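QA checklist item 7 of 12: single-chain prediction sanity check.
[x] sequence parsed
[x] length recorded as 333
[x] structure emitted
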Amino acid sequence: MSIPVIAFCNNKGGVGKTSLVYHIAWMCSELGVPALAADLDPQANLTAAFLPEDRLEELWPASGLAQTVFGSVQPLIRGVGDISDPHIEHIQDNLGLLPGDLSLATFEDQLSTAWGECVDGQERGFRAVSAFWRIMQRGADAISASVVLLDLGPSLGAINRCALVSSDFVVVPLAPDLFSQRGLMNLGPTIKSWRQQWRDRMIRKPALGPELPSGSIVPLGYIVQQHAVRLGRVVKAYDRWISQIPGVYGSFVLDTPSQPGLFASEDENCLGFVKHFHSLMPLAQEARKPVFLLRAADGALGAHQSAVTTAYHDFRLLTNTILSRAGIPTASK
């Protein structure tokens, strides 16, 4: 039985995908749910969030094989074999990281070619397209993870196509603005198209080929990032765009009719809202921990402690909602 993969994706960058995966992965650990955070964004920001620079230098050597997802696909890239077992970085109990790599971008062309090879039933094509899923499954199995949380870049290219067909579920982070809405309008039809294309290819899979992902890519819902407010101006823009999200998500992701007057706070597809953490985020980045685990020793003093408590409650609720919808049980503290 495969371990469920939840992808966090939007065609628009800057909507908080990496921060969400980082915080939700930590909260899974807090809730007693072993999790693997997988970084398939060629910018590798999730990996940089988890690990200090000196450790990154060790994982990304100037010469030799990288201890990253890119290192695991090297045999495929070189044409000398299948994927190798992935290196999983231990973050803490119940939490591991499949490190990303900027060099992953060089795998894009081969994945694009492999997608076409699957149409002809070529085993090599299926091995390449399923490489990410098989690497994540091996990594999750190695640490007995109950869920894989997948961070993706803001792209609709071959890397994200293979990553998404490797996903059982998808969560869409959104910002209340025009660009995020347009990204959602691109992403929804693309997911539906890729899902169907993978189903068509699965009919042609070789009998003795590798184990393959189902490519279900079930939409779990969306998360709205809440922006700061200054002199009421952002409030007006926020209200304008957030009121459109339920209809756009329903139309472009779920193919459901629009419900006029439905606000995101009332929409069952809205998984939650994420507040702006202001000065807490730099403290968290310096301490290399999520905002909800900051302590006085990290500089979270006075009013910051109240914000830390609120963040813990909010992320616990959000994480429980996501896991519940994905059918993943928790052992909450």
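[x] summary fact logged: The domain at 5-225+270-278 is CATH 3.40.50.300 (Rossmann fold).
[ ] second reviewer sign-off
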